Prior knowledge:
The complex is a heterodimer of chains A (about 450) and B (about 375). Chain A is built from 18 helices and eight strands. Chain A is an alpha/beta fold. In chain A, strands 2-1-3-4 form a four-stranded parallel beta sheet, with helices on both faces. A four-stranded parallel beta sheet of chain A has the order 6-5-7-8, sandwiched between helices. The longest helix of chain A is centred in the middle third of the chain and has 27 residues, at about 230-255. Helix content of chain B is about 55%, strand content about 15%. Classes of the chains: A alpha/beta (about 450), B alpha/beta (about 375). The interface between A and B is large, with 50 and 49 residues.
Amino acid sequence: MYDNLLTSLCGYTAEEIERDRARIDKAFDVLGIGPEDISRAENRITTYFDVELSSVRRQLGVYIRRLVNLVLCKEEWGKVVYTDIGEMRLNVALNTLDGVYSEQPSCLLGIAMGYIFDKITPIIDSAEAHGMPAGKAMCSGTQMNLGAIRMGIIPPPDIALVSGYYCDQVTKPYEQIQESYGTRTIYIDGSYDSPWGQYPEIDPRRVAYLAAQLRKAIGELEDALGVEITDEVLANANRQYAKIYYGMAAYNQLLRTADPQPVSQTSLILMQATSVANYERVQLEELPQVYSTFIREIKQRIDAGMGVVPKGSPRVATYSPPMGDPAIQRMVEECGIQVALWAHMELLPLQMEKSPYPTWEERTAHSLLLSGYFYDVWAKSYRAKELAKIYDLNGMLWFYSYACRMDGYGASLGKKYLEEDINLPVLALEMESYDTRHYSVEAMRTRVETFAEMLQLRK
Amino acid sequence: MKAKEKLRSHLKARTLELAKLRTAGIKIIGVAPTGYFPEELAISCGAQPVGLIRGGDDGAVMTSTAYIMRWIDTFWRSQISYRVLNNEPLYQMIDLLVVPSTDHNVKAMADCFEFYTDVPVFRYGVPHEKTEIGFKYFLDGLRLVAQRLEELTGNKIDDGSLRKAIELCNKERELLRDISLMRKAERPPISGREFINLNHAASWADKTLMVEVLESLRNELKEEERPTLKGPRVMLTGSTLAMGDYKIIDILEAEGAQVVVEHYSEGLRDYWEVVEPDGDLMKALAECYLMRKVCHGTFRPGKERIDFILRLARDFNVDGIVHYEPMYRDCFDVDAWRLANRLKEELGISMLQINTDYDASEMGTLRTRVEAYVETIKA
């Protein structure tokens, strides 16, 4: 049923399929993936992704492997830990421990069940029936964590490591999961008290608080997992994280200056989505090779002058691109806008400076806050301004997800700030990260086309 | 009742009085009403704290769409409008906005004031857990806000002035609690609407006068001829109950239900705990306002709040609970599902869940739902 999909489009070898067939069958059965879904996935992949690139195919395959692993994790691993966006280095560390499996379900399900199979809606329906109802602006990412567990397509974790320094809501459903399934919930708290205009100065109090929270979480993880998370484990996680991050920085460097944009944003999502979510074991093993192939293939395209938009198209940065529906990114490209960079993934020069803090927890906390994404709306706006200046951008496409408190109001303030302060045109575009019922790509097209024309005229 | 009349006349003149005080150099401190600002700090340095608790107007909600996204909590979204519309005198006279920041809805309000107005904003973080590190962070925040208030007023907060303010505020809390507890009686001497009005008044009335009024009222209520209660006893809960957002109470009481107790994290003042006026007073404030206070709905975990609501429901012998709050307060909404389940399982009580966007057109459907609910719990 799925051999063609996996070999032709997802980088599997025939041997890999044979080795994993029983597991794939079992997982697809639990997920309700049948022939129609396979056929839909084939169509979507060939329509939306740069499948002529072997790195893209391989990365699609990594998501399928991760999906299978997630469905079967309870029966295959001693301890299962679910995480959410944020503390990446700790996620990496967890996936280096013996007998521990760690994954961030919402982002993985978004890519695998959304991007590839377009089967997200039943998962969200399930969350809506279990305390995250429709019409109340619930985050679809958070709904997916809850919905998938309640549907029984992914197992409840032994431990949930959830952070509250970026999002309020993401921790809440785990309270009912804890009550229903006995999951132990470990919180990493944060505080939203930075004054407007403070970034890039980072409040040492916030660093100290987040560092203390990380230390507390590590202690609780050690207790729950029955293993010691040593300084060596953490240092090793840092090295692995850095290796991946610099791989990402290397291809981003190529994309920033390329004209025309050589690969679709949809393919880039596949590469980068992992960096805001989790580094599951398969990802840790495969990513360095996938990135190195990706860089080589991008270079070839740049050298050949190949692109997904016409040369000379307006160059913009984006924030928070959609992670469940590739149709949006394709539409942007069809409108003749090239995305030079993701503002939240870029490093500003100040992020390259040596951390003034001595401990792993403090350095991690400082680095997270310095990234801006986990700081505040002002930080995002400031970063966008600096990046626009450094890379001479023509505009900014600020996606924000319906129901995301942080990104939503941030987009409206950020737009006004950037337009008034540096005269950078910003299109704040409402979409939904995973729930496709909340928008129409064609209705968005009208706005993006107009924005593209305006940018073209200003060039 | 003399006490109520005294309060009514005071409130009628209060805005003007505050304006005069301001002209005379007294600083007016606007407080974002998350429940985590010890107003003792403002009082002890000679400032006048006023809770920015106005809500319930659809005009303010409509205006806010020019400033902020529609899925920010309706109460917090509308706060920027009261300032920019220039039609709410209290919002015009604040010299400093203090924001104990609990979540993104509150933070959005602070960002809007900083971005769109010239009001100085001071925010400090409210941790979402009652731990040693959370306590330390909160205490640091209180020290910073105290320092800011000293700079603004030019007056030092010393132990003497702070203790006096604590005693005054404790008295107010004790009186509110005493009056509230009277509603446990089979025939409560005060209606839900009256008690909520009192509680809201305490957010901006002169503190000394408020204490006098509450003391007199408590005595008067003891002697009050109590009407026989015919309808069901109802508890109100949710995230925020704003001053002016009274339609749910009015409908409930018009339908014969009696609101006998309420628990809101915001808008209404917490009166269950008092500050220990001994030892390190800043620590005592942090102890009371963070560690002993029933947690806000954004805390992780939030079980303590749900347990407390169940306890109130039991203690006040309620027949039903109405979970009424502004739209889009996500953490409270998610917890409401667990609250409803536990109420049903542990107390056999059903819960009516209503969200408001402060829209006048909600009245019809709201009345129908409340009527049906009251009929159900009567049966």
